[in-house]
Prior knowledge:
Number of helices: 7
Strand order of the largest sheet: 3-4-2-1-5-6
CATH topology: Undecaprenyl pyrophosphate synthetase
Radius of gyration: 18 Å
CATH class: Alpha Beta
Bound molecules: farnesyl diphosphate
Largest sheet: 6 strands, parallel
Structural class: alpha/beta
Strand content: 5-15%
Low-confidence stretches: none
Helix content: 40-55%
Amino acid sequence: MEQERAVPRHVAIILDGNGRWARKRGLPRTAGHREGCRVVEQTVEDAARLGIEYLTVYAFSTENWKRSAEEVGALMQLFRFYAKRLLEVAKRNGAKIRMIGERSAFAPDLIEAIGRLEEETKDNTGIVFTFAVNYGGRDEITRAVRKIAQKVSAGELSPEEITEQTIEASLDTAGIPAPDLLIRTSGEQRLSNFLLWQAAYTELYFTDKYWPDFSKEELERAIEAYRGRERRYGGV
Ligand code: FPP
């Protein structure tokens, strides 16, 4: 039996509630997103210090394009700004940064910035911080199936050879273990198309806190709840 770990190896977070956090304060939604980015940065640092090996956050879904042009534009500007800042965070923590999702939809300079972030941090050995942008679990699985079908039609693979590992290796998260704990903020209790394949056995933790109010204490509370369940059910 695997030894009980002090912290889950992989924590995934659906960060939700930026808009409501802002509204409660009479601020524009974009102010909530700005604060949300600051908390993401802080959470990478906290998770690294707690010994979490993988942190994955849902930053922008395939559905988020439906928001107003103004909000989408502001989010893209924030991603541009944070692509630079994240490089600093990665240097401080030895973090390796990855993006999952379909990046071709973004402006060329943003695609380049994301590529640079991944390239410059690829040899780091600290926490692996993955952000999901233009990500949807169904879209990821669809793209994986397409890749596999191409191999089959090229004669490189036979249908009988397709296993769960074949699918896993074709997902954007290839090489990243499944999340042990998934946290969603702001009181919603849905997966919203996040890590559909990967979350098959993941423990779910929900908090009413809006994402900008998330903190190290809240992360520790989630880990504590996870450990309690591990003790009771042995993680099956
Ligand atoms: C959740 O709140 C926010 C989003 C889905 C998009 C914005 C994400 C960030 C700004 C953080 C990403 C940062 C980095 C650096 C990767 P919501 O707008 O859905 O809030 P609401 O449900 O209260 O309206």
